[in-house]
Sequence to fold (476 residues):
Amino acid sequence: MADKKVEAITSMEEDFAQWYTDTVVKADLTGYTSVKGFMVLKPAGYAIWELIQKQLDARFKETGVENVYLPMLIPEGLLQKEKDHVEGFAPEVAWVTHGGLNELQEKLCVRPTSETLFCDFYQKDITSYRDLPKVYNQWCSVVRWEKETRPFLRSREFLWQEGHTAHATAEEAQERTIQMLNVYADFCEQVLAIPVVKGQKTEKEKFAGAVATYTIEALMHDGKALQSGTSHNFGDGFAKAFGVQFTDKDNQLKYVHQTSWGVTTRLIGAIIMVHGDNNGLKLPPMVAPTQVMIIPIQQKKEGVLEKAEELRERLAKVARVKVDDTDKSPGFKFAECEMRGIPLRVEVGPRDIENNNCVLVRRDTGEKITISMDELEAKVEELLVTIQKDMLEAARAHRDSHTFTATTWDEFVDTVNNKPGFIKAMWCGETECEENIKAETGATTRCMPFEQEHLSDVCVCCGKPAKKMVYFGRAY
Fold:
């Protein structure tokens, strides 16, 4: 375990939940507000979200997605149109009852999600097969009145994107559903350095009103799972509830087939819990607002700050870079750099300048590398790529070493209680077994992975013939 340089952080071995909260606060990512469960995203936190948004949005657009924006308020009558959907969200809905001093004739819900709004919009906007497909997305915030809140993982208002598409055929809708899940999985692995398991949610765990829900599941450092993105195939259920029809090429009136898919600011929570350590954050270079911090040593000595600024100007061509020229001690600056998860720091002092050298320090491994200033840009560029790749490999090694197999009930219970992580086990497909497993162990079905394995012939819980191999785990 690395030395704890920042004493204000509880060690993750001692109390992981407290370590997480301490890290979020000390890295200055969020602030608390006067309304419980609503958080301020401070510059350091919001900048990570901006990088996620920018890179994910570009990937969406490559697949033909267009951005729109719909209102944040939903009339109660509109919400009631899809019965399963409204029942799924009813406990978490916030209501607006007054406009100014006057009570509203119909109360308005602050969007917990926007399916009903998109259906209402599509019903007016789609008339012919020529209007299809509609491949829309919106970046916005939603409100869900959660009982227990934790920064990024579960807050009453959070930022996200929600894609909503409409298609002429069931096949097109299914293809888009899986396509977007794959976009999320690739993004998590390539940009966030988080390996994921892709699969389908069980009937019990699927989105209210969907035909099928698909998910990417990530494993946190403490062995708990985190649902990190979902993609839903709605079939034509919403279309029938809202009357979203079109005249097809055969001149017949048909219902559209819809999809919905989203990721949220909980991805920032995932980055913290997958990569962080007892010194704070470790940000993958691709989402690090500052990729390189230059720290001048003995900065009051002649020429040191000037050299640091010169290096900053050179590095600005290849990285997001800053100089820490505050009057804090170098030791404090190093600790702060680590706390904030900056992937690479450059140390430069009088002796380095004399020798035309500088020292590079990797946040992920702590490795120190002395290089000639002449090769600075090339070396920094190369190291940022290496750090990104190594962080993914480290996270994958952690996940794989914390993925277990159970073929009997006793083995399953023992694994849940004594080996935090994913558990692969066979399941009969019955919701009753799923509920029993959760009641007895606190583990839930995370997904039925696309890559199925045959571990045994019988369900780990009831012993009946098995239908699917499932990833189970305790989760956030």
Q: What stands out?
A: The chain has 14 helices and 23 strands. The two ends are 25 Å apart (CA to CA).
